[in-house]
């Protein structure tokens, strides 16, 4: 699962939206408390990536990775971009196919 997270960070950092989307299940959800919205399915995840990664020129750096069980991990990221600097916390759930099924995101 750590490799999946590292690939997610890399593809998002180079703004390769299609490669990043390929890591997500078709019905995936990103629920981001810090923006007050949930983004559902391929179109929702694409919108999230375009708005908050590409739109703010966001670059992410992995600070910590904690695998909770085979399907869940907690990840801390250092985010920088046009908004400044933030530390984010992601709880990532993967499905049996190894695709991201859900990300619950917030800022510290």
Predict the CATH topology: Nuclear Transport Factor 2, Chain: A
Q: Report how far apart the termini are.
A: 23 Å
- As a whole number of angstroms, the C-alpha radius of gyration is 12 Å
- Number of helices, counting only DSSP H or I runs of 4 residues or more: 3
Q: Helix proportion of residues, in percent? A: 25-40%
Number of strands: 6
CATH architecture: Roll
Large-scale geometry = globular
Q: Provide the spatial order of strands within the biggest beta sheet.
A: 2-1-6-5-4-3
* Main sheet specs: 6 strands, mixed
Mean pLDDT: 97
How many distinct domains?
Answer: 1
Give the C-level CATH assignment: Alpha Beta
List the helices and strands and how they pair.
Elements (H helix, E strand, L loop, with lengths): L1 H12 L3 H5 L2 E9 L4 E4 H14 L4 E11 L2 E10 L2 E11 L5 E8 L1
Parallel strand pairs: 1-6
Antiparallel strand pairs: 1-2, 3-4, 4-5, 5-6
Write up what this structure looks like.
- By secondary structure, the protein is an alpha+beta fold.
- The longest helix has 14 residues, at 41-54.
- The protein has helices spanning 2-13, 17-21, 41-54; strands spanning 24-32, 37-40, 59-69, 72-81, 84-94, 100-107.
- The relative contact order is 0.22.
- Strands 2-1-6-5-4-3 form a six-stranded mixed β-sheet, with helices on one face.
- The protein has a single domain, classed as Nuclear Transport Factor 2, Chain: A (Roll).
């Amino acid at each position: 699962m750590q490799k999946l997270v590292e690939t997610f960070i890399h593809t998002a950092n180079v703004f390769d939206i299609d490669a990043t989307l390929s890591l997500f299940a078709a019905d995936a959800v990103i629920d981001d408390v810090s923006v007050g919205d949930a983004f559902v399915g391929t179109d929702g995840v694409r919108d999230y990536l375009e708005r908050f990664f590409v739109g703010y020129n966001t670059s992410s750096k992995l600070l910590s990775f904690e695998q909770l069980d085979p399907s869940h991990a907690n990840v801390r990221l250092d985010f920088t971009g046009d908004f400044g600097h933030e530390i984010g916390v992601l709880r990532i759930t993967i499905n049996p196919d190894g695709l991201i099924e859900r990300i619950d995101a917030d800022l510290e």
